Amino acid sequence: MVNAKKVLCGIKVGEHSRSRADILKEVQERVLSQGCDIVYLRPQKLEYLSAEDYRQIAGFLAEHRVCFNFGFKEQMKYQQKDPSVDCQFSAETVKMLLEAGGEYFLGNCCSEPGTATACNFAGYYKVFRTKQKTDCVDMKEAHDEFVSHVRKFVLDNRSAGMPMLLVCEATALSKYSLEAGIDVPMLEVMNGDPDVLLPSVRGAARGYNTKFWGALIAHEWYGGRRHTDPLKQKRLELSWKMCYLSGADFMTLESGDEAVHSYGEEHSRDSVICANYRKMVADMSAFCREDLRPAGGPKVKLAFVSGRYDSWGGFCGSSVWNQFLREEWGYGSAEYSWRILDELGSRRKWSDIANHGDQDLSAGALYDIIPIESDLETLCGYERLVFLGWNTMTDEDMDKLTQYVRRGGKLLMAAAHLNCNTARGGSLLLPSQEKLEALFGCVFNGKSLRTNSGTKFRRNSLDQQMLYPGCDTFLSDPLYSAGYTEYLDVKLLGAQPVGYLSDTFWGKQENGFYTVVENRVGQGIATLVTCSSYPGDSALFPLYRAIVREWVSASARNSDVRVLGSDRLRWAQYPGGKLYLLNTDFDLPIAVKIIRNGREECVTLNPLELRAVD
Predict the structure, then answer these.
(1) Does the reported pTM lie above 0.85?
(2) How many structural domains does the chain have?
(3) Does residue 556 contact residue 562 with C-beta atoms inside 8 Å?
């Protein structure tokens, strides 16, 4: 029998309260009356509450079996007697909270370090007074600055005796807070694209083997700037349901249920807008109580690798690691590579000749964004790994990836991902030929060609699930020519070419260069695109995107469950075979076909419907 795990559902309180009585009233009206079982407490000013107030609040919540954590914002530093300390509680107060709250006291939460110190705009940086070095020499130093910033919060809170530390992150950088010692990641949802950022927090949690992960739904501020817009209200419902389907262990609403004061609009608690927020909280709390979602999170076969020192955030500014006003530190081809994910929620166009098979499996299934820092056992939990954005390769990572492939994994990367150079815009420094041969069955011979030629594929891949758009005769037009970029010449030492650089209809190639090579290592296959640019380079993007899209389809072909539906369908499979289907269409029902164990089942989902299918 598969174990089930109850998902906690709640609200953030305290931001507009000035006393213990106010907060307890909030808890009674906004939490207990809605059937919630978790609270995110974040008073606006520290002076509003004493240690005894905190003890009383903790005892009240524990008595009603409501889990709770506190939040720490950067601005709180300047309310304390000692602004250098990143913890608003003394050791004595933490001890009182533990005694009164017991197992329901989850700890303290660091608020949005990625947004503040890695993915911000220069103007925000000045207002928040964040002390950060903005003239770092390379990606490693910038990464180290960020990790040390979060680690200080960790050390200060550990010194005070905090039982657990959370991070509320609005970007894709949760993994660096976990590297710094944070225990539990939480995504601020709706700041960026949930289809992309939910996989990032789930992947970070899996990569660092955290107990659980959660979501803070920031819909008032980030679900749309017109509060009375009907689609914004529908989007609120989908944000909750997408978090549940994606595997969040707890979900809290940031605001909107008590009053709305944003974007020049004023809506009181009695308004239809706020009533809808409350209804959504109550409905999801009831759903979480009634549904037995299997423990372990959704089953995911394909993961995109978040590379070493990658600072792509998926939200807010586009200066890498907050290194403002230096153009070489602005987003470039490495960060643009992540745009490939923007289209994975949609099927390929009907006219796409590279979409093969008896069914269109090019979209719908979940993926993770997994840290390169993950251990080998975690990586081996995925059938396929794909590199997209910045990566600084190390010998240890090369060895780990080789072992991953040897154990049966399938790996895709470009030559740019092999770069060992930590410098932004630095020259290509490759791993040793020994390590390149061990993983990819080839070495680079020092030659390169800058060209705008296209690619011709072999018909057959070493990976039997892969269906490249190739033919045996090679009498065909080259594909995916999109401008000038550089390909590296390789000497094959066991690898097999599957893509050939070509500028002619007749034959394989004119110049002896391969664009894509495959190598069998043990039970797995390593695939290398020989371009020295990142996939976000406009000249490489169409080729790399086509390969990624086929990898997604290949992963689905090799699955015991197939779920077919429109582009608006999101679905997840959990341990034991339970499925969750979500129709993200605002207006129309969609038909869904489930194929498993040789049987077909057809269901129709109403607009916005989340359905569990055993």
Answers:
(1) yes
(2) 3
(3) yes
